[in-house]
Amino acid sequence: MHFSKTLLASGLLLAGNVLAIDLDLNDEGSIRDAAKTLAASIIERYNNATSFPSGIPGLFGDPYYFWESGLAWDSLINYWHQTGDDSYNEIIGQAMRHQLGENNDYSPANQTATEGNDDQATWALAAMTAAESGFPSDVLTDLNTTWADIVVNVFNAQADRWDFETCGGGLRWQIFSFNNGYNYKNSISNGNFYQLAGRLSRFTGNSTYEEWGDRVLAWSLDIGLIADENATIPGAVYDGTDSSDECSDINRIQWSAYAGTYLAGAAYAWNAVSPTHFHNFILQ
Questions:
Q1: Is the peptide bond before 63 cis (omega within 30 degrees of 0)?
Q2: Which value, in Å, is the radius of gyration of the alpha carbons in the chain?
Q3: In whole angstroms, what is the distance from residue 272 CA to residue 250 CA?
Q4: DSSP 245
Q5: Are 234 and 227 in contact (CB under 8 A)?
Q6: Digits of tens for pLDDT over the chain (284 positions)?
Q7: Class of domain 162-284 as given by CATH
Q8: 240-242/250-251 β-pairing
Q9: 240-242 and 184-186 beta bridge pairing
Q10: Whole-angstrom Cα distance, residue 251 to residue 226?
Q11: pTM of the predicted protein model
């Protein structure tokens, strides 16, 4: 059985350095035990954050950001899917529902002051994992929706925010103009959107998502967020650029997560269409 590294990564993120885990990557039982330990640690941290009156279902509280909470639930859905351990499914379902917001698109009122496109997409990616893995949707019954519907809601909202007015396209980092970073078009927001497109293309077979994926990837290349095959480091993914100067200057800081989300999007899209459809550089 293949075990996702997402759980291990997010578990370590939340657990800090308080856990000492023996792990043999050649032993499935050892991997399963490590995953179980990390899953329990995530839930323990969550319970500590929500066991007091001001605790909010779905959020881990300070010092964790909204996107980190979404990442944690994504990892736990993967944990359930790959181990069959449904011990935390009720908690996961409650958390994923509570943060939906009134439009079922992971824009809850409690996040209006700080939510960015990257934050919203992280939760949508968790919902996508739920749809792909067949995670129980009983918690959504009275809302007359599905995990896949929720992902589509987020995708459509972000597609509407695609900004043709500056830099020839791209998603801004922030959703709301009053937030710092609204003028910044960064790789994590556009990369997560690209991954959503790839996964929806694969899941639905709808060519619209494939077209959007092509658009996002082409823009990221053209603007220089991703270095092309002629660059010193082909495929390098840079932090972002400022729309106020038409994205003429690239912030060349690199983060592994930014490269990872583009690579994941490419892998899902490759799985949905012919391999020859892709820009080869992304696989270098």
A1: yes
A2: 19
A3: 31
A4: G
A5: yes
A6: 444 545 555 555 555 545 678 888 898 888 899 999 999 999 999 998 877 656 899 999 888 999 999 999 999 999 999 999 999 999 999 999 999 999 999 999 989 888 999 999 999 999 999 999 999 999 999 999 999 999 999 999 999 999 999 999 999 999 999 999 999 999 999 999 999 999 999 999 999 999 999 999 999 999 999 998 888 899 999 999 999 999 999 999 999 999 999 999 999 998 877 554 444 444 44
A7: mainly alpha
A8: antiparallel
A9: antiparallel
A10: 11
A11: 0.90
The pair of structure tokens assigned to 169 is 């396209």
Among residues 106, 98, 95, 107, the alpha carbon closest in space to that of 46 is found at 95
Q: Look up tokens 């990892």; give the residue.
A: 75
Own/partner pairs, 256-262, CB within 8 angstroms, 24+ separation: 257/188, 258/186, 258/187, 258/188, 258/191, 259/235, 261/188, 261/191, 261/192, 261/194, 261/195, 262/187, 262/191, 262/194, 262/195, 262/217, 262/220, 262/226, 262/237
Q: Where are the domains of the chain?
A: 1-114, 162-284
